[in-house]
Amino acid sequence: MTTASLNTVPFVSVDNMMKLVLKIGIEPFLKGLADTIEADFRRWPQFDKRERVPCHSAEGVIELMPTSDGDLYGFKYVNGHPKNMKEGRQTVTGFGVLADVHTGYPMLFSEMTLLTALRTAATSAVAAKYLARKDASVMAIIGNGAQSEFQAMAFKALLGIKRLRLYDLDAAATEKCRRNLSAFGFEIVACKTAEEAVEGADIITTVTADKRQNTILSDNMAGPGVHINAVGGDSPGKTELARDILLRSDIFVEYPPQTRIEGEIQQLAPDYPVTELWQVINGEAEGRRDDRRITLFDSVGFATEDFSALRFVHSLLKETGLYQDLDLVADPDEPRDLFGMLIRAEAAQKAA
């Protein structure tokens, strides 16, 4: 990848992100993204970590998610507005920036609505690789909105899951999910209730959008040996699981200070014991203890995963050329003469 001058920054638009994913292939892209996420979890202590910075309203939330590994800095702007769906808009949208820590110059500006969906699914599958039973073959997905197909594709790519049981309050959402996945080799059962969906499931993914505390999964729905991938609870006051399920589960999280505010474990005492996923990946903590334990990945999404996603996309740009040069940074020939650059621009306009 080359740029004409220091003031141009590679920009990956929605159109180019779609072309990039399709050029690489959906499953290979998810595998590569998952590998990058896992690699960054392995060097977790290198990262600057903090809770995301939220701006809550009655309608939703807008957040900034920053992190750095000391050489690169990344942040994501993201929102979560469940009411948007009724207005024909996305519930979640986002964009992100990757920058050089040593100069402060941005290296990448990218859409992150599609990329967030991909990285969320890839992270779920990475966690399940360490926490689900090795013989897991059936996944229930409760909540068949915008994230559901990405989850299915990531679990297929990383764990070989091909048997799906789908449920959503809106039957049209389930039909949409079934139709979108029909060409990818899945065996799909559309279910009429959440209870029906979890019958025979080895992995249960909950991924609903409603910004309230709900019991999507009641205690009797989580049997021995199941792995629960709880994705939908991601803000204060929004949960999906009955509290009793948490008390029967081995709980794994990304970054405890954030998850205790936003995840399922906000229902528990502030000092309730949980295990950090990076420790399991690094072999510093035990994951699944036996085939009868319930494991729960209380996923809220963390900035390092977005950093990994931006880093992965940036690594693909040179070979694919799927970006535009964006004139984003004012960079005069003489660094101290920013005003002079403006005056010279005026002179050039008059001369033209």
From TrEMBL:
Q: Which UniProt keywords apply?
A: Lyase, NAD
Per the record's keyword annotation, is Lyase included, yes or no? Answer: yes
| Annotated TM spans | none
Top-level taxonomic group: Bacteria
Q: Secretion signal: which residues? A: none
Record-listed E.C. numbers: 4.3.1.12
GO MF term list = ornithine cyclodeaminase activity
The record, for InterPro entries, names: NAD(P)-bd_dom_sf, ODC_Mu_crystall, ODC_N
NAD is among the record's keywords: yes
- SUPFAM superfamilies named among the record's database cross-references: NAD(P)-binding Rossmann-fold domains (SSF51735)
Q: What class of enzyme is it?
A: lyase
Family membership: Belongs to the ornithine cyclodeaminase/mu-crystallin family.
PANTHER family, sorted:
KETIMINE REDUCTASE MU-CRYSTALLIN
What name is this protein filed under?
Ornithine cyclodeaminase
Which organism is this protein's natural source?
A: Allorhizobium borbori
Q: What is the lineage of its organism?
A: Bacteria, Pseudomonadati, Pseudomonadota, Alphaproteobacteria, Hyphomicrobiales
